Amino acid sequence: MYKDEIIDPGEPIVADKDMKFAQYKDGPDATIVSFNFSFPYAWKLGLELEKTGKRPAVFNVNYMTPIDWSPILESAKKTKKMVVIDDSKSENLSCFSLLAEARALSLKKDILIKRRMNDDWLNPVSDAMEIDYEKIVREFIS
Predict the structure, then answer these.
(1) Is the bond preceding 66 in cis, omega lying within 30 degrees of 0?
(2) What average pLDDT does the segment 69-75 reach?
(3) In principle, which of 9, 41, 66, 96 could form an S-S bond with 24, CB 3.0–4.6 Å?
(4) Looking at the DSSP assignment, which residues form a beta bridge with residue 85?
(5) What is the pLDDT of residue 67?
(6) What angle do CA 133, 79, 21 make, to 5 degrees?
(7) Where is the Transketolase C-terminal domain (predicted)?
């Protein structure tokens, strides 16, 4: 990791006692949730939204289910827009549980960004994810 890749989001605004999740930004315009090691992508998306004047809530989940999604769902209920980023190298993602509950809230927009798995099990999958931040920002501000 290079010095310019280090992210210091500061202390969490909200965190459960077991640090299963933490909230680093609170805003009324979008809810961004990262799973596994995808927090840098969520943080960058939050910064990109802020450049347009939008204020997102940013959460990081560090735990497998079961988990109490209440704080994240409250944010999604308020913002009506959710982006979930999960870089897990599995087809059985914890974020599916969150998305199922969030979609019951009648969100105006939800986007799932997950790692693309290949069919060749003998070759490793890259750790880097490619995210089109501009496209996501356009979708959220329109």
Answers:
(1) yes
(2) 93
(3) 9
(4) 34, 113
(5) 81
(6) 75
(7) 25-88
Mean pLDDT of 23-48: 94
The answer for residues whose C-beta is within 8 angstroms of residue 75's C-beta and 6 or more apart is 23, 26, 31, 57, 59
What is the rounded (10 degree) CA torsion for 75, 77, 78, 83? 60
Contact between 34 and 76 (Cβ < 8 Å): no
Closest by alpha carbon to 5, among 138, 134, 140, 127? Answer: 127
Number of domains in the chain: 1
Q: 101: domain range?
A: 3-115+129-141
Of the candidate ranges 53-62, 74-83, 121-130, the one whose mean pLDDT is the lowest: 121-130
Residue 117 CB neighbour total at 10 angstroms: 12
Domain assignment present for 11: yes
How many angstroms separate the CA atoms of 9 and 45, rounded? 13
